[in-house]
Amino acid sequence: MLFGVDTKPNDDWWIGRNEPDIHNLNKLEALMFQGNGYFGIRSTLEEHYMEEKRDMFVLGTFDKYENEATELPNLPDIVNLEIVINGKVMKLNHGSVTQYQRGFNIKNGEMTRSFIWKYDGKAYRFKFWRFVSMARRHLFVSKVEVAPLDDSARIQIRSGIDGQQTNSGTQHLVDGTKRLFNARFIQMQTRTQQSKVKFALTEFHRLCLNGTDLNMNPRLKLNRRQIYADYSVDVDKEQTLTIVKYANIFSSIDKDLKDNVSKDSLAELEQTSQLSYDKLLAETTQAWDEKVWQKSLIKISSHNNKPQIAINFARYQLLANTPQDWRMNIGAKGMTGEGYKGHTFWDTEMFMLPYYILTLPQYAHDLLKYRYLGLVGAKKKAHENGYRGAQYPWEAALPEDAESAPIWGNADIVTGKPMKILSGFIEQHITSDVAFGVMQYLQATGDKTFAHEMGYEIVLQCAKFWASRLEWNSQKNYYEITDVIGPDEYKEHVSNDAYTNYMAHWTMKCGADIIADLRQNDPKDYKRLNEKIGLEELYKALIQRASMLYVPSPNEQLVIPQDDNYLSYKKIDVTKYKNSEKDKEDVSEIFKDFDLKELDKIQVTKQPDVLLLLLLFEDKFSKQIIKDNWDYYEPKTTHDSSLSYSPHAILANDLGLYSKAFEYYEKACQVDLGTNQESSVKGTHIGSLAGIWNVVIEGFGGVRITDKGLRIQPHIPKSWQSLEFSIIWKNTKINIFVSHKYFSVMSKKKIKFICHDHIYQVEPDEKLLIEF
Amino acid sequence: MLFGVDTKPNDDWWIGRNEPDIHNLNKLEALMFQGNGYFGIRSTLEEHYMEEKRDMFVLGTFDKYENEATELPNLPDIVNLEIVINGKVMKLNHGSVTQYQRGFNIKNGEMTRSFIWKYDGKAYRFKFWRFVSMARRHLFVSKVEVAPLDDSARIQIRSGIDGQQTNSGTQHLVDGTKRLFNARFIQMQTRTQQSKVKFALTEFHRLCLNGTDLNMNPRLKLNRRQIYADYSVDVDKEQTLTIVKYANIFSSIDKDLKDNVSKDSLAELEQTSQLSYDKLLAETTQAWDEKVWQKSLIKISSHNNKPQIAINFARYQLLANTPQDWRMNIGAKGMTGEGYKGHTFWDTEMFMLPYYILTLPQYAHDLLKYRYLGLVGAKKKAHENGYRGAQYPWEAALPEDAESAPIWGNADIVTGKPMKILSGFIEQHITSDVAFGVMQYLQATGDKTFAHEMGYEIVLQCAKFWASRLEWNSQKNYYEITDVIGPDEYKEHVSNDAYTNYMAHWTMKCGADIIADLRQNDPKDYKRLNEKIGLEELYKALIQRASMLYVPSPNEQLVIPQDDNYLSYKKIDVTKYKNSEKDKEDVSEIFKDFDLKELDKIQVTKQPDVLLLLLLFEDKFSKQIIKDNWDYYEPKTTHDSSLSYSPHAILANDLGLYSKAFEYYEKACQVDLGTNQESSVKGTHIGSLAGIWNVVIEGFGGVRITDKGLRIQPHIPKSWQSLEFSIIWKNTKINIFVSHKYFSVMSKKKIKFICHDHIYQVEPDEKLLIEF
């Protein structure tokens, strides 16, 4: 498996680069992203380069600039630290650089860098360390060491808060107030233009010479939207100058705000800056350990450690981008770049949620609580579109917002006509996806409280939407769903997209089951929800509509038509597009040959549509149907979405197509970690990273959350010796070990699971071993 | 005289650089500024560099972002043109560069660049040309030639409209509409956020191979706030690929707008793009000639051509930045950078206006008409401050705005406390300066129409302001003016600043004279203005207040106190600060030793205050007084404003201190053209550039507009052989020739002038020759 970053054979937690490469900084900025679920920073270097993209976001602080879509504002940069040696700015492209190494510790998010810089015949040793604290959510700490090796030098440092950043030219923040407190702490206070979210950022610097604190006060440098602390120190040969930079950020929407952003920010930094870099890093390492690594195990024994690095990396990226605050959700690119504006898509429920449900259920709970809060916006969207119930936005920002997708996309590159982005209008399966996520969570956790307080209401409102959304086709005498976009986004305005119709059917069915269950078992809750939603009427509607909704059945060749017309379209050879990567300009190869109107009329699929359906509802379809549809659709799929690989890998593994499964697994790993320097530039692919976990645990580990309970049916790749992992099922930790000969399951409490239609029971603390 | 640019001994119209220098691009961006009084562009290079500052402004299109001061919005960049050769982006810091020359033709604003670029062992010849049209106010044209010298090459071009520019992080424009018209014209439409000024920018590219039009349509590339045209051409060895880029900009405040910005912009470019680069350049050269160069002559015969280049350069910069639209005025840095936000200061009346009055009176008329329109804002400001009449803003943007100066400046660099910018509140001499400008114009042109329609009203409203502004000191039994800032801006909250009090006195006196004159000679106008301003009452007030206003007289040492306390402050040695330039950070040397509070109590002056007064009113003071005050104040002046050199040069010349005069003259020339790479970075100093003209014509040429008429009393520097120039006086062109032995004056009509208190009369077409 080729990676675009260097790795170490004996370190499962390290990615890096052993050569300076200032022409491909953007990818590393995203891969070495530092975040803690509250805020996150792209790992630009301390010194400035032409192509750098300095991005920092605080989750949930959305702002809408004029006619643009709401987005996370790019905040003032706190990473910058310019070092001038004898009047010359240190840059990797000035002078010469040797012994370069840039590394990233996946375990705690610490980035390090070291090299010898030679200029004018004299050498200097540089070392850099920095991290975003997982223990103190507002904190960023950075440490730099400079040592002149050949001669004494005057070393000037400029480090500060640079508010000239924009979201690709869009400025969300006002030019705020710049202050100095206690002669040492620099602060910038600002706020967003439209949403009036306030921010305060404070920095403190400690300079030491050979370990002795110089107790230096900065000289201030103020520019428009910038405040810098300047220092100048004469350093003798072989002395070491150390600069530790403490920085934090507070926002007015913080749940932990005590006074106001300015006071809180200053007070926290006054306290924190008394602690050493090492102490604060140790706290962070421990926090990562307690929050993530100790919660669940994944150990892959393979011919090399790249699979292990990939899964570790995926879990790091997931947690670093996941809010610990139910007013927010995970963006499609998290906070790793401006791509997708920090918006939440179906990626959360359909790709990321399994990881949380099965290893960190409290996170899953909060992510779904966000959707519960989002009922306000979803009802608004349904109402605006003339429907009832809750229609979830295709792109979600604040839970109370309705649709947050941009309305206009780029112009057609040939005609120059602006193209409407239709996903926000007609990519409607998201409403089923949310309900699906809720039910998966309830299945796996048995969290009755959530079900009654929030979960059922979400599902019922989604079902209510679908009941109102269906269209009666009097010719065919059934309900149908026309004019949608399914997961195959190449096709716009399709009728009866297989995935959409099946999911709508499932949602309505599920809603009816909940109503029936409540009526029988929980009259109090039934009464409450009946008053809110009108369950009597809804039940009837759901039963009637679900039974009369057209869901495309397999045809004579056992192929389920992707939509009403797909099978009638012409076929092309897709090989060329399957094997291509998006170019530097983010344009897929296929769009160089066809425009969207043409693709609309070709049997080519962007990402699994029928196949995703078959994966989710494996019990509803025979193995033969699944296989025949695989054979039909897989060759027609371009994987033009990074979300395409993981379902294909899992399905292939299910079908016994093991080398295909591994191939897709590797592709999923390579979406971000691979050699394409252009991928990840605008941010990593969080859904695809979650997909790595999905392939490992749901695919190779064979774990599935089904109606009937937990299913464990593993099969690991040939090149792996074993896979060891743990999941949490109904509040119980289960340890699973898979080799090529057998797999074992162990748990503290009694549990049951299904494997190849057999139900196995595991006694507490007894290892159940099943040979293949 | 050392210049920071290269010059050619035989070309008075060329400045340039013979070596690529990508670390000092910013200064050249301002020096090679291209503009036509409608719009202007900093001369960034076609390809991108780290430190570049892409700025483009259209005069008068002010926008106010939230709590910031109103400013000219930085518009989308149209200069960019990226050239990729065999996959490698051409940059001066990639590969090697030989035969480099970058030149700027002062006569028509054309910038050229040529070099051989070698990469991977293969050489390519590059040539660039471009200009902003003086004949078609919306137009920018750029031409590039690329020729592979060693081997064929694939050449890719990306050129477009890049709206990601900001004013140092502040974004005034909405993300607009990007369109392609007729398969060839790319357009961006946008508007300002607050003032809702609309813009359209259109571009068209013509690609030719060895002179043959390739008739290529672009492939579009659209990013956020960006639209690019992409081209790819295979070019054989020694073939030449030529790209001509036609671009324009229209704004919704344009006086010549026919339909709407989008249609006008497209229609104009459709027409213009049919003309060749050379044809359009020839138009521009002719327009410059007719508008500026033919209107007045300045010919300096000197030991080298730097004085000639400096004056040509000054006149180019002036005209390129001067609106031909009375709704606008000249910014302190014109459109050459973001500095001073496009705002107009006293620089216009006290430094730039003489050039226009004496060579281009129609421009002077329009600049003053702006102040007439500005009465709205000035009255508003007076009213807000509890005064009557018109109090002109220290910083002016739109004429109807009151004060446009920012209220808060940078924080104190030691305490970090934000500092209030007081100029907008208490630097009040601007109101007299405007009146002074009006009277100078009237003296020199005899423009009665302007006097009656606008000029008198301006002066009377200014006088009315002062009458209401004076404070009665009952102890001393006189009126006084406390709490102001004079031209010496080191001193805040001073009482009875000499310049301010004398100018206020002069303004009131002048107002009273106008009233008396109108009453006697123009009863109709008197009646009209009386109804508007209340002349009866005002006259009485002016007579009484002027007679009772304290104006500081020379003391026993003949020194006029700069203010009530100045002479009591301690003295320091100012030498160190006189000879220093502002550092890279734009911090004056003196502020490294003293803060503003300390400077307040030291006999040190930023720029002439008493001396400026003596220069303006030379007839009111004896030569001895002028000399003694020179001896007192000149050594205490740091010249920490670029406006300081020219008045010192002129006064020194008047006093016979010829080497001092020449020294100050050279310093004025070097403010922008000198070797300090940090000056001009934020824009050139238009007032100081006008100062070069002032020294040459008013100083060495001895021309002064006085109460008694035209004064010509020349004395040229030792190193000059002669100075030949023309001025316009009362609509008559006067040619003056000055050598070391004599000077001559010639005119088409009969004129009179004063020289050393003699009145000379020149008969039509007869040369009057006066020997020294």
From TrEMBL, chains A, B:
A Pfam family of the record is: Glyco_hydro_65m
- UniProt keyword list: Glycosyltransferase, Hydrolase, Transferase
Protein's organism: Companilactobacillus mindensis DSM 14500
Per UniProt, residues of the Glycoside hydrolase family 65 N-terminal domain are 21-252
GO MF assignments: carbohydrate binding; glycosyltransferase activity; hydrolase activity, hydrolyzing O-glycosyl compounds
State the family named in the UniProt similarity comment for this chain: Belongs to the glycosyl hydrolase 65 family.
Gene Ontology BP annotations: carbohydrate metabolic process
Q: Which PANTHER family match?
A: GLYCOSYL HYDROLASE-RELATED (PTHR11051), PROTEIN-GLUCOSYLGALACTOSYLHYDROXYLYSINE GLUCOSIDASE (PTHR11051:SF8)
Q: What is this protein called?
A: Glycoside hydrolase family 65 central catalytic
Instruction: Write out the residues that bind substrate.
Output: 346-347, 606-607
Q: Which Gene3D superfamilies match?
A: 1.50.10.10, Glycoside hydrolase, family 65, N-terminal domain (2.70.98.40), Maltose phosphorylase, domain 3 (2.60.420.10)
Which InterPro entries does this entry report, sorted A to Z?
6-hairpin_glycosidase_sf (IPR008928), 6hp_glycosidase-like_sf (IPR012341), Gal_mutarotase_sf_dom (IPR011013), GH65_N (IPR037018), Glyco_hydro_65_C (IPR005194), Glyco_hydro_65_M (IPR005195), Glyco_hydro_65_N (IPR005196), Malt_Pase/Glycosyl_Hdrlase (IPR017045)
- Cite the Glycoside hydrolase family 65 central catalytic domain residue spans from the record: 313-694
Active-site annotation: 489
**Glycoside hydrolase family 65 C-terminal domain: from which residue to which, for each copy?**
704-761
